[in-house]
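Subject: Sanity check before I submit

Could someone independently write out the structure tokens for this chain? I want to compare against mine line by line before I put it in a report. The sequence has 504 residues.
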Amino acid sequence: MGLSPPAAWPWAVSFWLVSSLSAESTRLSALCTLRSFSALAQRPSSIQPPSPRVRSYRDYCCCAGACARVRERLISTAGVASSFPVGITAMADPYGDGKGFRQQQQRQKLKPALEVEDFINLLHGSDPVRVELTRLENELQYKEKELGEAQAEIKALRLSERAREKAVEDLTEELTKVDEKLKLTESLLESKNLEAKKINDEKKAALAAQFAAEATLRRVHAAQKDDDMPPIEAILAPLEAELKLARLEIAKLQDDNRALDRLTKSKEAALLEAERTVQIALAKASLVDDLQNKNQELMKQIEICQEENKILDRMHRQKVAEVEKLTQTVRELEEAVLAGGAAANAVRDYQRKVQEMNEERKTLDRELARAKVSANRVAVVVANEWKDGNDKVMPVKQWLEERRILQGEMQQLRDKLSIAERAARSEAQLKDKFQLRLKVLEEGLRMSTTRANNMRSSVSTTTTTLVNHAKGASKSFDGGCRSLDRYKGHINGTVGGYSIRFAV
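---
Independent answer below. Compare away.
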């Protein structure tokens, strides 16, 4: 009479776990189940399927083993998974140097590993929680690599920034030195200009003296014609000597002026070079400003990445907490399934016993009615026989003893019926208690699922379907069949003894 549990019961448990985790894990588990069903569909028809009882026991053992493996893996991986972040949602290509393309290539490299793990899970049984954890670990490694690259770039940018700051400091020092040199050259130019002005003034004074001397000579020549004057050579000799000295001084001053012109030209060239260096320094300063702006942008991006990392850490912790809650719900569901199956089997056995005892009661009532009718007939026949036999006295004592024996047996049967009714009532009370426990468990599971995120809104429906599957599966357990057979044999024996005794 025991019905086998539905073959899709372990798949229901796996689907329930997968739906509570994420959309990607559901896709992977659906792929695993489709492949497994296709493999079952492609099985040759020559192989005989196992018996329903063996298949149900195997499915139940497989489900219990899968739940235990999931629980152990969750416990073993929860401690490792809680210490790392899930990953950083990096930008597609923030620097424009092809990093987004490399990230896509690395993601494409991770996909075949997941397909291989899916195939291994198909061989060893679907384990969506392990698939989800491996996916999260791969994403973590990938995001850690991205973090390492970003940190290395940040270090390189900081080093380049320090080098540029040193270059700017050197350029500022050179600028200060060039400014000092410019100030010195300007002061020298002013002094040389003053000297040149003095020389020009002296030259003008010498020319004026020369013109005055020539005028005096003309006057002397004019006066010499009239009066007897000393010779002109005696007058011109000192003047010529003064002229020679003045010419020598003029030549020296011209040489000095040429040297000053050369110095001014060299200073102008130095000034032009200084202006060029100043322009280069300004360009470098603008580059430094641009680099500082880029550095600030990178720091902002780093802060954004750190905030995303914190958010992902929180999400990872929430997922770990959800996984722990799911493990607890799995344990509670296992206990509920086991308790519900045992209770349902016990209630079913008691119902069978009550039905059998009611049937036996009906048969006993029928046999009692028949016995009463036969006893009345026998009494009538005996009375008629004794009446025919010269009106002899009836053996009332014998008839009373037989009646007393029959009444005692009837009382025993009534006691048995009362005991059976009490057992049926107690079984009905137990059944009500177990139903109340199942309702309380369902309400607790629904409350726990309503507290979860919107991503887990479908968990409530899956839990109710799983409990319904568990109820359907609990109907298939065969507990108490042997005790029922023994009880049937015992009752049949007693009834047979009664019928034999009654016939005797």
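---
OP: Matches mine. For the report I'm noting this point. DSSP finds nine helices and no strands in the chain.
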